[in-house]
Design a protein that fits this description.
With 410 residues, this protein is an alpha+beta fold. Helix content is 48%, strand content 19%. The protein has eight helices and 14 strands. The strands form three sheets. Strands 1-10-13-12-11-14 form a six-stranded antiparallel barrel. A four-stranded antiparallel beta sheet has the order 2-9-7-4, with no helix packed on it. Strands 6-5-3-8 form a four-stranded antiparallel beta sheet, with no helix packed on it. A hairpin with a 2-residue loop joins β11 and β12. α2 runs antiparallel to α4 and α4 crosses α8. The radius of gyration is 46 Å and the shape is elongated.
């Protein structure tokens, strides 16, 4: 509408002034509803052509988007298990730090599990102390068995030597008895060694493994106990947090509230432009933005990135073939913008409704010494109509309060 009014000032208005003051034709007399087309045909035709040309130039070389916003992710305050709330540490609208406790669930079962795991660890450590005493006993038995073996072996050696000399002091029966006794003592030594090895294996392998398992169970129980205290994952503000002691929270069906993270150092605004502007909106290009939450202000922006694909073209494999005619909406391409001066958006809340104008910069092309006269005039015209679009944005910035009142019905 503004483009039509602007073009009519340069076409229809001069044509009317000529008809009125040069030809003496007046509205309601010679110029009526039935003769207006014939009388002002040159101005109306010129206005239509100029308006269409202006709109084409503006919306191609200086596209606009009414779908602009700074999206942000909220964190749902959820426990990792079902439970009944027994203690609350923060209030609604409270700003919290990462890791700060928010509320605590009933932890009697988890506390008992921790105590049982601790007792199991202490029991295994006690078994390790007993095993040390068993090792001392086994080593004593081994020394005793080795002493008895050496005593029988020496006695057998002496009597076998006497028997080999043919003396009557030792009988063959006695030597045979000593040989049997020596074999028995050897069995006792082997048994004592096996006992020592068994105790050492228990101390070096079995009990440490049991202790590691018990300590792992203790850590798992402590982790389960820690899960009963729900903490903030990031720095932010707690919203919709209306817990009461005795409430039951569920990680699937009944969250406790929402945590809104703090604003990052660089706030990115995302804008959806029509596909016809894909060759104009480029990284590093300049734009202007106006938001309903900050009326009467126009914020200069710069494009930081442009999404290389259009969301309307995505698909997921299903059990039916894709019919391209079912995708009627052409979709928009996404461009991300950051403020040229970050301090200007400090008062713009996240999620504000905004509009943005992108501008085509032809300065470098105008500086080309080999540019033709026609090209030079066209590029200057592109820059000139950019001023018109900038004016439209400023009018929109002034009309934000009126538009909000109309939309809300007040």
């Amino acid at each position: 509408m503004f483009e039509l009014l602007l073009c009519s000032m340069f076409t229809i208005l001069p044509d009317y002034l000529v008809r009125r003051y040069r030809q003496g034709k007046r509205i309601g007399k010679e110029i009526t509803l039935f003769s207006v087309w014939y009388e002002l045909r040159y101005g109306i035709t010129g206005c239509a052509i100029l308006t269409l040309s202006l709109i084409t130039l503006i919306f191609y070389f200086h596209p606009s988007s009414h779908n602009v916003g700074s999206f942000f992710r909220t964190l749902t305050i959820l426990p990792e298990k079902n439970g009944r709330v027994v203690e609350i540490y923060v209030d609604n609208d409270r700003r919290v730090k990462s890791g700060e406790p928010l509320f605590r669930l009933d932890d009697r079962a988890e506390t008992e599990s921790v105590e049982m795991a601790q007792q199991e660890v202490e029991q295994i450590r006690a078994q390790m102390a007993v095993a040390e005493a068993d090792l001392a006993v086994a080593q004593g038995n081994l020394e005793q068995a080795q002493g008895a073996y050496e005593q029988v072996r020496e006695e057998l050696s002496v009597k076998a030597d006497l028997l080999s000399r043919g003396t009557n002091a030792v009988s063959r029966r006695e030597v045979e008895r000593l040989e049997v006794a020596l074999a028995t003592r050897q069995g006792g030594v082997n048994s004592a060694k096996a006992s020592v090895n068994a105790v050492q294996t228990k101390m070096e392998t079995l009990l440490p493994a049991q202790l590691s398992s018990a300590e792992a169970s203790l850590r798992a129980a402590q982790v389960a106990l820690g899960k009963t205290v729900v903490r903030a994952g990031v720095d932010g503000t707690v919203q919709q947090f209306a817990l009461q002691i005795g409430d039951v929270v569920n990680p699937l069906l009944r969250p406790a509230g929402i945590l809104i993270p703090d604003k990052p150092k660089e706030v990115v605004f995302q804008a959806g432009f029509q596909q016809v502007s894909a060759q104009v909106v480029k990284v590093g290009g300049l734009a202007e933005m106006s938001c309903a939450s900050l009326p009467f202000e126009v914020i200069p922006m710069v494009f930081s990135s442009v999404q290389p694909v259009i969301a309307a073209g995505q698909f997921r494999p299903t059990d039916r073939l894709l019919d391209i005619t079912e995708r009627g909406a052409p979709g928009t391409f996404l461009a991300k913008m950051v403020p040229l001066y970050p301090e200007q958006i400090k008062d713009v809340p996240w999620g504000s409704q905004c509009i943005a104008n992108a501008y085509t910069n032809t300065h470098d092309q105008l500086e080309d010494p080999e540019i033709g006269a026609g090209r030079w005039m066209f590029l200057h015209m592109v820059q000139t109509v950019g001023v018109v679009h900038a004016l439209l944005l400023r009018i929109q910035a002034l009309l934000w309060p009126v538009q909000t009142l109309v939309l809300t019905g007040h």
